[in-house]
Amino acid sequence: MFDSITGSIKNAVNKIRHKDDVASLKKAIVELKKSLLKADVHHKTTKELITAIELETKRVGIGQDSFINALKLELTKVLTTEGNQGFVYSNTPPTTILMTGLQGSGKTTTTGKLANYLKQRNKKVLVAAGDLQRLAAVEQLKQIAAQVEVDIYFDDNQTDPIAIAKAAQEKAIKEHYDVLLVDTAGRLAIDEELMTQLKNVRDAIKVDEIFYVADSLTGHDATKTASSFKEQIGIDGVILSKYDGDTKGGVALSIASQVGVPLRFIGIGEKMPDLEVFIPDRIVSRLLGLGDIEGLAEKTSAVIDEKKAKAVAKKIKKGEFNFNDFLDQLAMMSKLGSMKSIIGMIPGLSQMAGPLKDMDFENSDEIKRIKALIGSMTEKERLQPSLINPSRKKRIAKGSGLSEVQINKILKQFKNASKMAKKLSSKGGMKGLQNMMS
Ligand code: GDP
């Protein structure tokens, strides 16, 4: 995420050599202008930004710190548009949101992510399969709804999206849903027919807000299409999808400044938990390579069950961590979303992490093997791995398709890891680790 803009902003900062050195500030500004334009920031936004940053740096007194602070201040200003942040609930539920966007933008996936986000916050959510344009969209939404365990309204015999929206809203009202998310048709490009259809759906039901899903990877086009949607059907918020793949990061600045509609969420991976509320100063912090610890804490607190975490910590201390606990921890990790998004939140790690960034933890061969192994264990064996004797090992090997050598290796690793965790969690554990490292 943002690797290129973060790097080039650093270069700009490094141009400033001495305090009150006007010439070096000029050089930094030129460098900054280049990096913003390269990052797909609209030329008007770039101009406004560099003017403001230069003025602010001079006002405070030229230096690297004041330049960085001016950057933070002005970038945050640009990203802060008037209007709502995150998700806003209507006073008359169900809060109904139309999910709009071009085909391939990530609209259907984002509908699922938003449903998941709301479900995690204890809301009763209904999604409506109203994208009758793209052949597989209804099927895709069915799968996603099942995955995140929210209800879905669909009608395989219906060809009219208005009828789907109306019936879904009736169901949502009758069955007291908190939120209804209506997926709508997309097109490869904006056309009359699409806009008319969206207007008709919008006017046929009570709609609280219209979200536009913009694909960050389309750069300047994302800004243009968001503007068209705003003019033609009126949008209340933009969700930037695929922000994880966008190393440039400037599209958020362009949309905020040129479209004038608040960015509400960002999509930061293909998985269902990979959606975050868009909070300007946190994005700026990541753009500058400073991480987002607050965001990380929020993310983990939504996913981690504190009671369970304490119980596991106790078990680790006593050396009783077992394979069931391990599966629980894995499930929790997968709720956190992709590794890339987590790494981007830890200051400095993004530059250091290298290949770790692209690691798909859940689908790695190692984790698959461990899951197969645990799947073939009895409940007793999971709770007490020391029970596993040679004859049990043979049975597990048969069931899991692993060789006994592989099983021995995993069991040994597990044992060592439990021992290490026990040591670290005991008093003076960290000291012990430090000694070991040194
Ligand atoms: P739709 O035609 O707009 O409904 O598009 P889809 O929801 O089918 O998404 C198109 C592709 O983009 C799919 O392969 C998604 O997995 C992928 N996608 C959606 N959002 C994100 C995101 O935030 N990050 C990444 N990396 N991929 C995404």
From TrEMBL:
Keyword Transferase: no
Main subcellular location of this protein, as a coarse class: cytoplasm
GO BP terms: SRP-dependent cotranslational protein targeting to membrane
Subcellular location: Cytoplasm
Source superkingdom: Bacteria
Swiss-Prot/TrEMBL keywords: Cytoplasm, GTP-binding, Hydrolase, Nucleotide-binding, Ribonucleoprotein, RNA-binding, Signal recognition particle
InterPro entries: AAA+_ATPase, P-loop_NTPase, Signal_recog_part_SRP54_M_sf, Signal_recog_particl_SRP54_hlx, Signal_recog_particle_SRP54_M, SRP/SRP_N, SRP54, SRP54_GTPase_dom
Keyword Transit peptide: no
CDD domains hit by this protein: SRP_G (cd18539)
Residues annotated as domain SRP54-type proteins GTP-binding: 262-275
PANTHER family hit by this protein: SIGNAL RECOGNITION PARTICLE 54K PROTEIN SRP54, SIGNAL RECOGNITION PARTICLE SUBUNIT SRP54
Protein name, as recorded: signal-recognition-particle GTPase
